[in-house]
Amino acid sequence: MGLFEQSQIPLKAAIKAMKLDPGAAAIVEHPERLLEVSIPVKMDDGHVEVFTGYRCQHSTVMGPAKGGVRYHQNVNADEVRTLAFWMSCKCAVAGLPYGGGKGGIIVDVSKLSERELEALTRGYIDKIAFFIGEKLDIPAPDMNTNAKIMGWMMDEYSKIKGQFEPGFITGKDLSVGGSLGRTAATGRGVVTAGVEALKVKKINPKKATCAVQGFGNVGSWTAKLAHDAGLKVVAVSDVYGAIYNAKGIDPYDLEAHVKKTGSVTKYKGSKAISNEELLELDVNILFPCAMEGQITKANAAKIKAKIICEGANGPTTPDADKILDKKGILLIPDILANGGGVTVSYFEWVQNLYRYFWSEEEVIEKQTALMVKAFKEVYELSKEYKVSMRVAAYISALSRITKAMKNRGQF
Ligand code: GLU
Known about the structure:
The chain is of the alpha/beta class. The protein has helices at 3-17, 22-28, 77-94, 114-128, 147-161, 182-200, 217-228, 251-261, 275-279, 318-326, 334-337, 340-354, 360-385, 389-407; strands at 33-42, 48-59, 65-66, 69-72, 100-106, 137-138, 209-213, 232-238, 241-244, 271-273, 285-288, 307-309, 330-332.
């Protein structure tokens, strides 16, 4: 089963639970638009390579499409479509005035020079410029893209438009209209959701342990902010391997080690473990912050964490969901748990539209308030409908999206 088809399973459960109008359900099940582009890039050795890129707008019912651009060798149309669908739901769960979108380029960034990466980025924007915009579709960072790449995108788009266009993209550096608090925002939201989940399970965060899969932007900030919230981070991984220390790992010190050596492996005082072992540790919270499809029917039965809080998009397959549910594990789904990034992207966009910037305290305070509110709403829905937090999150998203559709006369 493809990723998009898999992603529809909890959606269908929500549609059934809330007895949604079949017409409305059919609209939500189909992305509005999917664009595929070819991007020729003159490589450093003089030859031309043609890369494939995508941009999908799943929904623009509640506002412009919103979502990141991913650079990865496994990007494909099905994945982009799925991620765009998740963005529509994520924005709706957080109560943001956005639809959902996503972009991607099929590329292994480790094989490109800085100049080639910039040429590819500008080429992508040239091809999709007519499709995006401040009131149309607003890109942002995702896997392997960052503030520097957003700066190139902003520059290219501004050149095409012949005017300063900060509001068409978020996740930028502060010097070009970025927001304070954006870099840490996804991790911060994941930790806010994790702490709320600990409250549900009546576990004191200061006595809780956690394991973090992934040490990119989301994983590293989740580890650091979980540590700041008093949780003991006992295991961390990256693409090169995983490490464990029962006494706890200081993620700030680990980050310095990663800067020096390029990986979390061989960190002082820690034991090397496998990625599978990390996922199966007996911890209070497991934070999967890496890739899709990490918790599957092959390992779900072996998971010992009391809470799973999804920093990545789609780390748990629907088969695994069923097993985890039976085991009584409290799973905080991606579309709720990792909505902190797009929430602060929304704040960045608002600041760009007003040309008036907020303090970091203000951003954090507003983000935390929105996340806690969304968590409580989803938790209440899960009790009311007697469904998992994942299905409840879809009920929350669908009720907002379809209310807008109804009021626009779409069904
Ligand atoms: N790529 C992030 C996500 O999947 C952030 C999207 C955004 O800020 O628009 O939520």
